[in-house]
Amino acid sequence: MKKFFEKNKIFLAIVIGALIIGGAIYFSGQREKPLGERGESSQNCENIPELPDNALKLATKIIDGDTFLIEGGYSVRILGIDADERGYPCYQTAKNGLENLILGEEVRLERGVEDKDQWCRYLRYIFLGNQNISLELVKKGSAVNHFSPRNLKYRREIIEAEREAKENKIGCEWGERKVLEEKKTEWSWVELTAEKLGLEVVDACLVGRYLGRELIIEGKVIDTHHDLRSNTVFLNFGRPYPNHCFTGVIFSSNLHQFIQNPEDYYLDKTIRIKGEIREHRNRPQIILEIPGQIEVGK
Questions:
Q1: Which residues pair with 273 in a beta bridge?
Q2: Distance, CA of 271 to CA of 284 (rounded, Å)
Q3: Confidence class of residue 36 from pLDDT cuts 50, 70 and 90?
Q4: Is residue 201 within 8 Å of residue 216, measured between CB atoms?
Q5: Whole-number CA gyration radius for the chain
Q6: What domains does the chain contain, in order, with CATH numbers?
Q7: Which of 158, 193, 252, 287 is deepest in the core (most CB within 10 A)?
Q8: How far is CA 125 from CA 2, 34, 52, 97, 154, in A?
Q9: What angle do CA 213, 223, 276 make, to 5 degrees?
Q10: pLDDT in tens, 75-101
Q11: What is the mean pLDDT of residues 270-284?
Q12: Cis omega (within 30 of 0) on the bond before 149?
């Protein structure tokens, strides 16, 4: 054995060195890899049970005007429409409208071309008896038409209903939205200003076109999450996860520098964030390393 090691010591040294270097690169990459908005735990739809076409299920909870839960806690995204989520003018109207129609009712879930989306939500047209819920919400001005190229069923009647609602200024989408948007508050800023820093100020939901640039972004924190496994905080703008348009990320290594429980402190506040716009899973984000990168509007 001793002779073997002596004869092959150069070869063994090369192998051991390669293992050490490879391990260092791997673990370094693991530390620097950006986390997803929920701690990089990829969506695994394998545990979501099959849902037969036209299944009848009880609607147990309304998330917003186009998403709800069925018995078992599984999420359903209604096809053919799009409704405001929290932080947008017609969110509450749309949510109330869907609650009044289906909450506590047994609904029929008609499958579209695709079974689920990337967040494991069932994609379905929803019926209560013979009533097309997408059509009803559009008629009442609680939602607008939204069709992907692959899911076009009922498109003609829904678009016609939207045209009539728009012409007659029916519901929040066509009657109240403009008034509500005009009531937005004007905020004042001290540190993160274009004049002081020489950086462009961009709305949080428009930064996707500025990847790689250093900017000041402004918007309302609609949804937050503190991933305890990685000790990372996510501040989501525009809409709640997974429909958010931008995220500010505070990694564990920097978290001690920030205010205690930033996920609670910044929730529902309009803030500005300064930094380089990066992309992760097709969503823009800024990594927050120091408190000076963030300011709350007054």
A1: 217, 294
A2: 16
A3: very low
A4: yes
A5: 25
A6: 48-182 (2.40.50.90), 194-296 (2.40.50.140)
A7: 158
A8: 73, 36, 13, 16, 9
A9: 10
A10: 999 999 999 877 678 889 999 999 999
A11: 91
A12: no
